[in-house]
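Sequence only, no structure available. Ideas?
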Amino acid sequence: MGAYILRRLLLMIPTIVGIMAISFAVIQFAPGGPVERVIADLTGQGDSAADRLSGGGDLVSQQGISNESGSSYRGAQGLDPDLVAKLEKQFGFDKPPLTRFLEMMWNYIRFDFGESFFRNTSVIDLIIEKMPVSISLGVWILIFSYMISIPLGIKKAVKDGSTFDIWTSGVIIIGYAVPSFLFGILLIVLFAGGSFFDWFPLRGLKSDNFADLSWWQKILDYIWHLVLPLISLSLAAFATTTLLTKNSFIDEIKKQYVTTARAKGLNERQVLYGHVFRNAMLIVIAGFPGAFISAFFTGSLLIENIFSLDGLGRLGYLAVVNRDYPIVFATLYIFSLMGLLVGLVSDLIYTLIDPRIDFERRDV
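Reply:
I predicted one. Tokens follow.
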């Protein structure tokens, strides 16, 4: 097992370098980078550059008018070439792309993610600041979905082909097919003061008077704000885990050891939970880390924006919109690294649950 873990760790290096290299290359061809964005602001085609640019006021005060700037940036005509050069230097675009990529990877290896282009703070501080919201959503989504999905999946497996199985499958398929953000918008329209009821808050995880509430009122206030985002995010996870549990139990129920257990006089409950449960839940439990990462990173982006939750998903979205590349690449690096590590953890959980599984005999 030690050799397998070492191979997986070593393979993570070229994998994450490849992910970052492809993303970095795509960004080079994407129009509207941070320099162009500031130029658009300075020429009156965007929001105030001074509000987003570190030291922007000093740069703006130095701008001049030139008939021919000689800049390759679209919209740079009429700006002092020295100003454009200072912008390029400030954002690090005065260096060749390969040099910038190598410097970025060297810094990321040491977990030095630099500072945001437009927020005047370090990227790692921003990520740490936003992480509690996303972790909170991820944890509650898993707890909520697993508490419902596993019992429901077991019952569907036991009653396979029955009326109960058919109509619950229809509900699950609809829940899986409807995107979480679309369902979130529907919940807002119905229950957050959209067109019908005003039962739940529209944004955030805390009320304005949260600090003045007692401890039990804070808990209730937190739950009150969490209801709609949690329901929206749980749909896909709920459907996937339910069907996975059902199929896993059906496969195990059909095996010979179940028939033998029944022949020995055990009742269905003893057979189901004494023999089938451990083997059937192997794939569900082993997939728990991956499910958490999925709920933590991928599922929250649109929901956090719809419900104005100040988490990592919203941070990444705003970074892309504002071309804040340090945040974009740092979050991509962290998410990719955690995804690779979680894949390894899932394999190790398999071996802990079922020692018969031996990854040493398999090719990585």
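Residues 207 and 221 are 7 Å apart (CA to CA).
Hope that gets you unstuck.
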